[in-house]
Design a protein that fits this description.
This protein is of the alpha/beta class and 424 residues long. Helices cover 47% and strands 8% of the residues. The chain contains 20 helices and 8 strands. The protein has helices at 5-8, 21-24, 29-35, 52-61, 77-84, 108-112, 115-119, 133-136, 139-142, 155-172, 181-190, 195-208, 220-226, 239-253, 257-269, 273-288, 295-309, 315-327, 333-346, 406-418; strands at residues 42-45, 66-71, 96-101, 123-129, 146-149, 177-179, 211-212, 215-218. The strands form 2 sheets. Strands 2-3-4-1-5 form a 5-stranded parallel β-sheet, with helices on both faces. The protein has a 3-stranded mixed β-sheet with strand order 6-8-7. Strand 2 (66-71), helix 5 and strand 3 form a beta-alpha-beta unit. Helix 11 packs parallel to helix 13 (220-226), helix 16 runs antiparallel to helix 17 (295-309) and helix 17 (295-309) runs antiparallel to helix 18. It is flat, with a radius of gyration of 31 Å.
């Protein structure tokens, strides 16, 4: 069997694991707990290729317990029941450790089947997931486990992992394997924090490298050929997607065009044109808003153009619009105003519509005041008349506050003059 390089080079001890020093550094609570030999129920959460499976296997293989390995993508209720049958038998005398990879793929009933044995300690669970466990794992199971987050590896972590792999290859193969420093750095940068991905690319390069008198040598050109478009870590339904679109909008809101363009580029490289357009429109309305109200049709036109021409040309109108949004004055006054109004409606603070605004012209016998008595604003000077528009229960309520930008302040001054508020 042609075993992948990432599998062959998998670390055997915690000290050999690259990255995750917030968990694995000597003296950290996680490492001290593992080294104590008393293994608690744990869930490892983080991106792929960051060491979750490796750490779980190291713990399991050194626990002294009977180890069972299952994968949520392929196991069923029958597989889980087969593991639980070892409880109380000679096979499980030293304890049972269940390593469950990709636990998010188990349904609620399958996860619930583990509750009792985890609660009484007859089975110790170590599970791993690339998805946020607070969204995908049953709460009762989650409350019985401690969640540890595995973070994306830095380029330095990946480089160390690649160098370790090269050393092991040279020790285990019949021929020396070397790599140029610039090639190693390029591979580490292009992996996007995923060591497994980097080792997969390295495996290709090692296989393709010609065997010379000095062994196999890998240069930068070879690495560039096998790492094209591998640096993107993106899942349209996962945390990476939401992190990128969040950073994209927050960069525009924060008036940083360079950061906004960076995240736009990541969305477009992933082919996610809909998210790039949607968040751009939201930001124009929510974060620029009334400070530059003309921006809304401008951005809408750019989004329409992007969708019409498609990728890769869509990058051009979107870049124009992103820079415009990022460099425009900002106001979220309309955002705050509508949220406050919705909050009142949701809380039941409404009340009957004032009689003068109702769309009816007949008063019942019990009406205290006959007639609609609506005042048509255009019949009055400056097209405005003092009149109650809000229901009685909300009379005097203020949802909208003028922003401090030039456009809204001009409107504030205009209406203050019309309504005589500037004389108060």
């Amino acid at each position: 069997m042609n075993e992948p390089l990432a599998q062959r080079m998998r670390p055997k001890t915690l000290a050999e694991v690259c990255g995750q020093q917030h968990l694995l550094a000597p003296g950290r609570v996680f490492r001290r707990t593992i080294e104590s030999g008393k293994i608690p129920n744990m869930i490892f959460y983080g991106p792929s290729g960051t060491g979750k499976t490796t750490v779980a296997r190291i713990i399991a293989e050194n626990s002294g317990m009977t180890l069972h390995k299952l994968n949520g993508t392929s196991c069923g209720t029958g597989d889980i029941k087969a593991v639980l049958k070892d409880i109380g038998t000679l096979a499980g005398a030293g304890g049972i450790l269940l390593y469950l990879d990709e636990i998010q793929y188990l349904n609620k009933k399958q996860q619930q089947s583990l509750l009792e044995c985890i609660e009484d300690g007859s089975v110790t669970l170590i599970a791993s997931t690339t998805e946020n466990p607070y969204f995908y794992i049953y709460n009762a199971l989650l409350s019985r486990c401690t969640v540890f987050e595995f973070k994306a590896l830095t380029a330095a972590d990946v480089k160390q992992g690649v160098q370790n792999a090269l050393k092991k290859l040279s020790e285990t193969e019949d021929i020396s394997v070397t790599m140029d420093e610039d090639a190693c750095e390029y591979l580490a940068e292009s992996a996007g924090g995923d060591l497994r991905k980097a080792l997969g690319c390295l495996d290709f390069a090692v296989t393709a490298a010609p065997a010379g008198e000095q062994g196999r040598h890998i240069d930068l050109d070879m690495i560039r050929q096998v790492t094209r478009r591998t640096a993107m870590r993106y899942d349209r339904d996962g945390d990476d997607h939401y992190d990128i679109v969040s950073a994209y909008q927050k960069s525009m809101r924060g008036s940083d065009p360079d950061a906004a363009l960076h995240y736009l580029a990541r969305l477009l490289e992933a082919g996610d044109l809909p998210s790039a357009c949607r968040r751009l429109m939201v930001c124009a309305c929510e974060d620029v808003g009334l400070a530059y109200p003309q921006i809304i049709p401008i951005v809408k036109a750019a989004v329409d153009a992007a969708n019409m021409v498609g990728l890769p040309e869509a990058r051009l109108p979107l870049a124009d619009a992103v820079i415009l949004v990022a460099t425009s004055p900002k106001s979220n006054s309309a955002h705050d105003a509508i949220n406050a109004a919705i909050a009142d409606v949701q809380a039941g603070r409404t009340g009957p519509i004032p009689r003068q605004l109702q769309n009816k012209h007949f008063d019942g016998e019990d009406a205290l005041v006959k007639g609609q008595n609506y005042k048509y604003a255009h019949d009055f000077e400056h097209h405005w008349v003092d009149q109650q528009y809000l229901p009685d229960a909300l009379k005097g309520t203020k949802y909208y506050t003028f922003g401090d930008n030039r456009t809204e302040q001009a409107a504030r001054a205009y209406w203050a003059k019309i309504k005589g508020e500037d004389k108060v």
